[in-house]
Amino acid sequence: MTAARSGVWMVLAACVVWGVAPMYYRYLGRIPAPEMMAHRTIWSLVFFGAMLAMQGRLAALLGLWRNPEFGRIAAASALISFNWFVFIWAVQRGHAVEAGLAYYIFPLMAVLLGVATLGERLTRLQGLAVALATLAVGLLTWGLGVAPWLALALAASFAAYSRIKRGLKTAAAVTVTAEVALIAPFALGWLIWLEVTGQGAFGHDAGASLLLPVAGLITAGPLILFSWGAQRVRLSTLGLVQYLNPTLQIGCATLIMGDAFTRWHGAALVLVWAGLVLYSAESWRQERG
Fold first, then answer.
1. Residue 80 and residue 160: Cα distance in Å, rounded?
2. Which among 163, 169, 225, 270 is most buried, taking Cβ atoms within 10 Å?
3. Rounded distance between C-alpha atoms, residue 104 and residue 102, angstroms
């Protein structure tokens, strides 16, 4: 198997796990979102830490607080923790469709952020793609009578996270582990408080005790696969394959979890897809040119 083909399979595997992950969080909906988030943080740190240990790079993590990029890593940590929490809360509260929509909007929002902060310029087709995504949000707001705040919060936080991560010289595996490590003390403190007050599920609910560590696996595992795969495939291929994630999320939400999918969601999705097709086609043309 060629490196490019193996890279595509790695990215596909990562996107499939991300796409079906909402079912895991919905199944454990009896676990409050803050507790779920705390376990996701702690178990992710276990997996990321084990990966660095196997690579012999734990020393790089321990000395990171002296790194000039530490401030940016701390900001990225705050953004990704916010993103994770909102996603868990949205899925548990029956808003998995809106959470999935966020990851269609994210690439186009990231483009706007690049224009605003990096002075990047858009072609006409790219500008039309962003306009279609904006129209989709406006249509959804008008149809539902309220702005899709969850989708916007998820898309904006992940776009800002991606912007901060861009250009970091520290290895990605080290920075991701550091981001989780920075919020781990808060997560651990919360879990200890729950245990002391008798409210924690871990160790008291057999099913939850077995399944909660999986939160770390479905967080760290796909990210590692995606990172490896991204190094082996074309950027345009990577962008197209990523759309499998929100497609599966919305499919699971509507077909399996029974979340509401209105005609307004459908209309917004058509507009966003049109924008993504235009943007992807233009990106493909620029890359080949």
1. 9
2. 225
3. 5
Residue 96 contacts residue 253 (beta carbons within 8 Å) = yes
- The pTM of the full predicted model, rounded to 2 decimals, is 0.87
Question: Tokens 């989709």 belong to which residue?
Answer: 136
Q: What is the pLDDT of residues 51-108, one digit of tens each?
A: 889 988 888 888 788 888 899 999 999 999 999 999 999 999 999 999 998 888 887 7
Domain count, the chain: 1
Helix, strand, coil in percent for the chain, rounding step 5:
80, 0, 20
Backbone angles phi, psi at 281, to 5 degrees: -65, -40
Q: Which helix (H) or strand (E) holds 124?
A: helix 124-144
Is residue 26 a contact partner of residue 257, using CB atoms and an 8 Å limit?
yes
Virtual CA dihedral for 139, 145, 150, 155, nearest 10 degrees? 20
